[in-house]
Specification:
Elements (H helix, E strand, L loop, with lengths): L2 E7 L7 H12 L6 E3 L13 H7 L7 H13 L2 E10 L2 E9 L5 E5 L20 E5 L5 E6 L8 H9 L4 E5 L7 H12 L2 E5 L2 E6 L2 E6 L3 E3 L5 E4 L6 E7 L38
Parallel strand pairs: 1-2, 2-3, 7-8, 8-9
Antiparallel strand pairs: 1-14, 3-4, 4-5, 6-7, 9-12, 10-11, 12-13
Bound molecules: acetamide.
Length: about 280
């Protein structure tokens, strides 16, 4: 049975958690989907003016206000939600994504590759790249991997998720660099997976510096096709029907396989190793 896969794109208001939850609730109201991906840091906005600002909005997982809202939406819609938010765990802060199933189960991914000033605010993710077994409302089981925004820049992230069995990669994002929307079809194709990038739009300022978020959320198929893509500045939910099991046949032709033909013994794993082979 097909799975209805969706991204939700909007422009979170800086530090306005209640307002952002209300905006998402209203965008979700009539949505019929099995899997809905929300942007990175969807409750708070992105460009923190200070660590104090981050502390105001970071929440424990799963006991915070935003996970409670996500649980109630997942239950009401019968959908699995993947959403980015600032996590507080003791004295540490993580740029995390939660995976919330309709039965209320919550899993967490903590962003591994921190971008720009995130490196001064958050700890790098310590849970690794994770793949979760998920069921659609019609009972189709599939495997869902999660990465957050800048993780796209490192092909190892999507590759690790594919090697761990992901059929679909959920990718909550706050993209500012222009390259990702044209790169995700490549990540999808080189790993033969579906990808769902949920980006935000709008602009945030800090000390005269401005970040513009580029929208263009998209769902890509395993052959690298863009199945649906949002405008740059729209509040929108984009939905497409996919068969996640299509990702599992990774044969390129009778002789080649996307993952099976890898030659890890020939790849660089040790950056200190020899880079030039002497000739003669
Ligand atoms: C990003 O990782 N938010 C660009």
């Amino acid at each position: 049975m097909p799975v209805r896969a969706a991204y939700l794109q909007f422009a979170p208001a800086y530090l306005e958690v209640d307002q952002n939850l209300a905006a998402v609730e209203s965008l979700l109201r009539s949505v019929e989907a099995d899997l809905i991906v929300l942007p990175e840091l969807f409750t708070s906005g992105y460009f923190f003016q200070s660590k104090d600002d981050l502390e105001k909005v970071a929440e424990p997982i799963p006991n915070g206000q935003s996970v409670a809202a996500l649980r109630s939406w997942a239950d009401a819609l019968g959908a699995t939600l993947v959403a980015g938010l600032a996590e507080r765990d003791g004295d540490n802060f993580y740029n995390s994504a939660v995976i919330v199933r309709p039965d209320g189960r919550v899993d967490t991914y903590r962003k591994v590759h921190l971008f720009y000033e995130e490196t001064t605010l958050f700890e790098p993710g310590d849970l690794g790249f994770r793949v979760f077994e998920v069921d659609s409302s019609a009972g189709t089981s599939y495997r869902l991997g999660v990465m957050v925004c800048f993780d796209w820049y490192f092909p190892e992230a999507a590759r690790t998720l594919a090697l761990r069995g992901a059929d679909v990669i959920a990718h909550p994002s706050n993209l500012v660099l222009p390259h990702c929307p044209d790169s995700m079809p490549v990540r999808a194709r080189e790993n033969h997976v579906f990808t769902i990038t949920a980006n935000r739009h709008g602009r945030e300022e800090k000390e005269g510096e401005s970040l513009r978020f580029i929208g263009m959320s998209e769902v890509c198929g395993p052959s690298g096709t863009i199945l649906t893509r949002a405008e740059e500045s729209a509040n929108v939910v984009g939905i497409v029907e996919v068969d996640p099991h299509e990702a599992r046949d990774r044969g390129i032709n009778a002789h080649n396989d996307v993952l099976g033909d890898r030659r890890p013994d020939t790849y660089a794993t040790d950056p200190m190793g020899a880079t030039v082979t002497p000739s003669g």
